Amino acid sequence: MASEPFEIVVAAATLRGVDGPRWIGVRDGMIAAISDTPLAAEAELDADGALVTPSFVNAHLHLDKVYTLDLIGDAAVGAYTDGTMGGAMASIELASAVKDSYDEAGIEANARRCLVSGLRHGVRHVLAFADVDTAAQLRGVRPLLRLREEFRGVVDLQVVAFPQDGLLRDPGAEELVREAIDLGADVVGGIPWIEYTDADSREHVRRMCSLAEQTGRRVAMLVDDAGDPALRTTEMLATELIRRGLQGRGTACHARALGRYPAPSLLRLARLAKQAGLGFISDPHTGPLHLPVFDLLAEGLPVALGQDDCEDAYYPFGQQNMLEVVFLAAHLLGATVGSRLDALFDAVTTTAARVMGLDGHGLEPGNRADLVVLDGATVREVVTRHAPPRYVLAGGRVVAENTAQSVITRVARGGTSRLRGKIAPSLRVGEIEGHLGG
User: Fold this and answer.
1) C-beta separation of 375 from 389 below 8 A
2) Pairing between strand 156-162 and 279-282?
3) Confidence of residue 183 (pLDDT cuts 50, 70, 90)
4) What is the domain-level CATH number for residue 393?
């Protein structure tokens, strides 16, 4: 007896590293088959030779701050992006002024808008930081926890309880982080480099890793986020993870100071980080300094890319388009072709999933059918265009479809003529909103 047709088949897809078209069969939300011949389907999406990959992962986003730049002004951005990043601490202090007017309804509306923008661009998983400190209290984390439920199954959020202003220098913040975890935050955050002494930085790391150990959470910390090679909070984090038996449960974000380490110091740290199972996240477009991404990859460490910010005090642009992030990183890191460009694409898909601790995020039978049908047949083409995917699938369901038709007018001999052609897609927002909470 012939096998039952698949619920959905992505037809004539191009897969990375595979010659010839493939048909991807989906059943019960999972990739059930990948074939070099057509598969019977109840519904079919024609990729028509386009590249199909796992959906995108944004491994670092300050979601409670999106679209707040106009409330703050440009001073913080200027301090954060100076030539040496010496003003990084000052920029955080300037940006904290917005918390005086933190409003949960406004945060929720802005964050929802950002998540929909990301979904338009195929972002399926987000590590979402929410400030938890004596200024913000829990007004940043509560809206993100609500959105986590609203978008469940469509965009999966991991909410990070993030003590942006430190622990030792902000008495009371530690208790608020604990309260955020009790409310349901997924990840324990940290920013040890912002403390005033190395001893306080070490204590910051110790307390947050202790909380992660007690509650069974992962850890995500912003470390060494300034142009000072004396900063050693990445080392502190790796050491504490090993000491507590938390290997593989930690993430180091930014770590820009590593770009100024002498080669022997960088190698020592890389070997220590590997023992700790530490993953790294870089956002090279948001500042003049960045993590030495390819040096760490060469040592076998996983490095993801993140959007970091969307129109806030630290970065004035951003639309949660991970292909745009790759496009910018490719220029900044000298990785515009070949294996390096492939590695950057992995850094927003499979490697990013690994850094976030996600299982089964790959284009293989048995994995969840979280897929994007992209605009182009190669990694270089899709990065060049960094256009929204034609289709976005979450658990085998189409949750976004991008279609558009542009009318181009030209002046020709004898008069004006109009040319019609499909170019940059636009989103059917109603289709996304109809899936939320499903």
Assistant:
1) yes
2) unpaired
3) very high
4) 2.30.40.10
